[in-house]
User: Fold this.
Amino acid sequence: MSDIIRRDPRAEWIARNRLHPLHAAMQPVQHSWMGPNGILRKNVHGVGFIGPNGIKRIDRSGAQQGGASKRTAAAEVQLPLHQVAAPAFYINVVPDMVGGRLSSHDRDLLGLARQLAGSDGAVLVVVFGEHKESTFATAGVDRLLVLEGHEFDGYSPEQRVQGLRAVDNQFNPRHWLLPDSRSGGGELGRRFAASLKERPATRVWQIKGEECIGRAGAGQEDLARPLPRLILAAAECADPVSETRHEVLPVELSTTLARSLPRIEDLGAVAVDPAAIPMAEAEFIFSGGNGVKDWALFHQTAAALGATEGASRVAVDDGFMARDRQVGASGTWVTARVYVAVGISGAIQHLQGIGACDKVVAINLDPGCDMIKRADLSVIGESAAILQALIEAVAAYRNGAKRDAA
Ligand SMILES: Cc1cc2nc3c(=O)[nH]c(=O)nc-3n(C[C@H](O)[C@H](O)[C@H](O)COP(=O)(O)OP(=O)(O)OC[C@H]3O[C@@H](n4cnc5c(N)ncnc54)[C@H](O)[C@@H]3O)c2cc1C
Assistant:
């Protein structure tokens, strides 16, 4: 075959002409690819697609991207596998696993652990009891140790510390990393440190060489100190792992754990009024906007779901919701695991406030609105009918559960 480069001027012209109907088909669909050194490369300019009127559109849900799904593309990209056959040392991480899954704080911590592990060390994650996580490999986990048993259920810090002591004896990790959070990691880390007689570095947000920097003085000061063995790290202490895949090899404890003294008795969770939970701390928020036509039904649905109520600014300005319920740039920035937006269009000021939410569900009449683009799950239709159906579905589910229990 001749090595003369052949050009198709017509195809080039179509590729340049945003208004041509074949323009999208002429664009390279590959937005990320593997570079020669095994690092994933991304073309940030390739994000989005040109709409019918020639304006560039960026689909926040990732469902379109010029006709090719971003999620499918992500699934197709096989990240390079990082293997550590014989680890020179271990970096142990104890994630919070709120709801049985890695939280964003846990992922930041794993990113930090990877930095400390380098190419010779292995990141060993210790998980208590059952979990639902399926993405340990892409979160940077080389070894996984699951400590099973009912003794770790609920609030069991003494038993957990005992488990961690056994892991410490067996693996002798170079560092222990726990999230300095209110979801368990902060307390467990301090108890563990006391049991090891170590002085931990707390609220660490940066590690530079052999030094770490943590927040102190009621969040007003930074405290630099030599890197200790036990680190309690703040959220956003490092970027989560995104460019490598890891083995997640299961490891086990070689010793059997003795039961600790039952000095603490877990009496179970206390029912709280969802309305009394501060918006910034609520895990499940049911938010209403201008598209809610029946506010009594809205409150009824939130109560049936056991969710904390939120609102758009329009709903607040119109007097349907209290000012402290407003979500968004001029309201509260929320971090819920599930955020349901009923009749909210998704104005930029509102979307800013829900940027840290894990899963967003949109109920809206308009399939083209920005909230639907942001949402992980959308229900297109009239809000009153959907809320009514939701109440019925919750009631049927609860009755079914009661029947099964009987
Ligand atoms: C400086 C500044 C700060 C702001 N700060 C905030 C803020 O913190 N928080 C905030 O929320 N806004 C804020 N805003 C206002 C923001 O720009 C939007 O005006 C507001 O978020 C719109 O609220 P909405 O989505 O409820 O109403 P709309 O924009 O009117 O949207 C209503 C939505 O409901 C849908 N709908 C209508 N009828 C139905 C039905 N029967 N069933 C289902 N869906 C239906 C429509 O399709 C539409 O998508 C701010 C604005 C400014 C200028």
